[in-house]
């Protein structure tokens, strides 16, 4: 059963918690630091995937580094702990160092009830403190940002990022994934569902989002050989980089 969280943040103590997806993207060498920090902070669920950065070979050679392997660590957390959790773990893994990585959260609109129950009834006092801050009007204003995601055939990530940068994007992270279909390679709305796909993740300000998505879609959209699907979700609590 899916329990929709929606966007209503009731002041009642028995209101369901609002849960977000927390994402840390760091150099692979720091992956254990993140997962250990999550465990010590009491995070109940976490997953790790291996990706790669999108810096060009010329930049890597200039910096004297030969690998861009990234750890993408995902977890779920109640909104009452989001900012202090991200700040604490960012400090432990050295996220304040230039180029060390980035962390952010993505609000969820629904989650299955047993998982939601893991966050209920445990932090009422913390939730009441958040509500008091909201009522007092001293909550920090969030900068409106988005996570742009592009799912496309393998082998196009460098070209996609080059186009995205022209439209105002900074950097990105690439994950290699496998597409699935009932009968192997089929067409779905004109898109080939193949085994090997790439997911490109790019953080962007709300003002630049449409330009970046349009630039990528125009050359690498569903009608191109890359057969790219491009979409975005809101991103909050961005730490480690300053979006411009």
Layout of strands and helices, then pairs:
Elements: E1 2-4, E2 19-27, H1 31-40, E3 46-53, H2 57-63, E4 69-78, H3 82-92, E5 101-107, E6 110-112, H4 113-117, H5 124-136, E7 145-153, H6 157-166, E8 173-178, E9 187-188, E10 191-192, E11 196-205, H7 206-220, E12 229-239
Antiparallel strand pairs: 1-6, 2-4, 2-5, 3-4, 3-8, 5-12, 7-11, 7-12, 8-11, 9-10
Helix pairs in contact: 6-7
Task: Explain briefly what this protein structure is.
By secondary structure, the protein is of the alpha+beta class.
Assess the beta-strand content as a share of residues: 25-35%
- End-to-end gap: 40 Å
Structural class, judged by helices and strands?
alpha+beta
Proportion in helices: 25-40%
Characterization of this structure:
The chain folds into two domains: 2-136, Alpha-Beta Plaits (2-Layer Sandwich), CATH 3.30.70; 145-235, Alpha-Beta Plaits. It is built from seven helices and twelve strands. The chain has helices at 31-40, 57-63, 82-92, 113-117, 124-136, 157-166, 206-220; strands at 2-4, 19-27, 46-53, 69-78, 101-107, 110-112, 145-153, 173-178, 187-188, 191-192, 196-205, 229-239. A hairpin with a 2-residue loop joins β9 and β10 (191-192). α6 packs across α7. It starts with a strand and ends in a 5-residue tail after the last strand. The model is unreliable at 1-13, 59-67 and 129-141 (pLDDT under 50).
Brief descriptors of the model:
244 residues; alpha+beta; Alpha-Beta Plaits; 2 domains; 8-stranded antiparallel beta barrel; two-stranded antiparallel ribbon; 7 helices; 33% strand; globular; disordered N terminus
């Amino acid at each position: 059963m899916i329990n929709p969280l929606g966007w209503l943040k009731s002041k009642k103590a028995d209101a369901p918690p609002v849960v977000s997806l927390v994402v840390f993207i760091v150099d692979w060498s720091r992956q254990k630091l993140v997962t250990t920090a999550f465990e010590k902070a009491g995070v109940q669920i976490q997953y790790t995937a291996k990706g790669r950065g999108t810096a060009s070979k010329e930049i890597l050679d200039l910096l004297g580094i030969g690998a861009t392997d990234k750890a993408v660590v995902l977890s779920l957390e109640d909104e009452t702990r989001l900012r202090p959790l991200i700040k604490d773990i960012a400090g432990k893994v050295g996220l304040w160092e230039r180029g060390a990585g980035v962390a952010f959260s993505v609000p969820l609109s629904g989650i299955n009830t047993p998982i939601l129950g893991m966050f209920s009834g445990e932090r009422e006092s913390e939730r009441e403190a958040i509500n008091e801050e909201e009522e007092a009007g001293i909550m920090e204003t969030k900068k409106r940002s988005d996570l742009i995601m592009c799912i496309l055939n393998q082998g196009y990530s460098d070209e996609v990022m080059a186009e995205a940068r022209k439209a105002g994007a900074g950097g990105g992270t690439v994950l290699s994934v496998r597409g699935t279909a009932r009968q192997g390679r089929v067409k779905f709305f004109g898109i080939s569902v193949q085994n090997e796909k790439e997911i490109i993740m790019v953080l962007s300000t709300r003002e630049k989002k449409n330009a970046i998505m349009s630039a990528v879609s125009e050359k690498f959209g569903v009608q191109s050989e890359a057969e790219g699907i491009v979409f975005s979700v809101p991103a909050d609590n961005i730490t480690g980089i300053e979006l411009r």
